[in-house]
Amino acid sequence: MKLKLVIIGLLFCSLHLRGQVPTIQDCLGAIPVCQQIYSEGLSPSGDGNYNSEINTSISCTAGELNSIWYTFTVSASGNFGFLITPNDLNDDYDWALFNITDASCDDIGTDPSIVVSCNAAGGNTCNGTTGATGDTNFSQQGGGCNSPTPSINIGQSPFNDLIPVIAGNTYVLMVSNWSGSPNGYEIDFGLGTGIGIFDEDDPFIDEIAVPEECDDQTITVTFNEFIQCNTIDGDNFVLTGPGGPFAIDVTATACAAGGAFDKVFTLTMTPPISQLGNYNLQLITDSATEVLDLCDNAANDAGFDFEVTNPLFLDVQLGADTAVFCVGQTVVLDVTNVDATYVWQDGSTDPTFTVSNPGVYAVTVTNPCGVGTDEIEITYLNDLPTVDIGDQLTLCEGDDLFLDATNDFSSYLWQDGFTGAVYSVTDGGLFSVDVSNACGTTSDDVLVTFIPAIDLDLPDAIALCLGDTLFLDVTQEGSVTYEWFDGSILPTQSIDKPGVYSISITSDCEVVTDSIEVNFISTDPIDIGPDAILCFGDSIEIGVPIVGASY
Fold this sequence. Notes:
The chain has one helix spanning 253-256, and strands spanning 4-6, 31-32, 37-40, 68-73, 78-80, 82-86, 93-99, 115-119, 130-132, 140-141, 159-160, 163-165, 170-177, 185-188, 205-209, 218-228, 237-240, 247-251, 261-270, 277-283, 302-308, 322-326, 331-334, 341-344, 352-355, 359-367, 370-381, 392-396, 401-404, 411-414, 422-425, 429-437, 440-451, 461-465, 470-473, 481-484, 492-495, 499-506, 511-521. By secondary structure, it is mainly beta.
């Protein structure tokens, strides 16, 4: 056995995390191949607890139809073959073989490259026995039978070529009962010779990722083959070294998902490693705590030494970089750590330091795991915040109005929950703020009156019939004053004579002036003059100039 000792994080293939318990109808619950012949006297229905594991768009089969899964790891490279014989030779069975050595059950539905061989041929002479027997040289045959050019979509024969396999690779085989018959089948895995798919070797730890720094809490062990989840736990491991004894909890991704087996296991230590030094991890097995592979071969005891050499920079926290208090208050800075020594800025060596004056305070903490430092600047205030955002304010439409409550070392809370120092006012109303510092809270409020813009837009001119009266109304919102051309101060004006009429409107924000020319149309009879006789080449001008008329 050659152990690979690594100091990097190891990540095993991701697996289903849907919380269902896998069955033999699911990839995660695949039957380990530990013997040559398996007799399935009753073919189950459905596709287990993990549905649609086969993607029909990238598979030659029509999916998992009344499926059973098998898994094996090859111990020597060579050609693998098998034969499925239905108990009723009229039944049609399909199958697909996947290489999941560097993949997972989840990848089967998305990665066509892990399909090694697949056969869904059926109907006519293609029902009955099927498998990878070497009777053809095809590795992909879809549904149908006797096609001269089989492919993933159409089949010629129920038999595929033998399958080249590589030592150390892990495979899963999905057998699908397309007919739906309950009569079952027999599967013979003995067609390939010398590749060792029937596991008789004891499993062992192939890789171990050990802590590199103090306060690391996990060790990752990777076995050379799948281990049954229910045969491994914290009792199988003993960690010795500085800071022990250690309790160990064992987890694995597939096991946590409800699977029956996994290769990669994470050991979580309590307490974490907190001292530099030499450590030893033991895999302990006996009759009560055997660690078993899928074919019930038991792992042997083993031990692994490692050294933690890199000190961890301690995360020492005095709080925020700055802190503010009111005169008379004291604060206790506490950096207590296990097995640590302390040096403050004044040379004191207690884990706590009491502060009552402004200044910069710093500490260095040292323990067997490393060294950490931190500092904090403390400021003292004498008084409450001073706040004056005004008594009564006016906001003209289109202008900006900002209420400023800025105070050093303070927090702010406005009437609507805003927490900034400066508040932007966009409408009228009562605005209030609470300003707090280490000495307490000061409140203030202000009434803001919003003055809308004056809306005055008279036409340049207008024509009325004699006898008509024009009524002008320029009433505005808010508090304004009016002054007409004649000195009147009402917002209305009645006009029955021609002339130019002007108005000025004044608010606290602006003065707007406008005017209108009023004309009256004559009702006299139209007269364009007496009849006239013109010589050739002469001209005469005629017209009826009436204000407001069209011609």
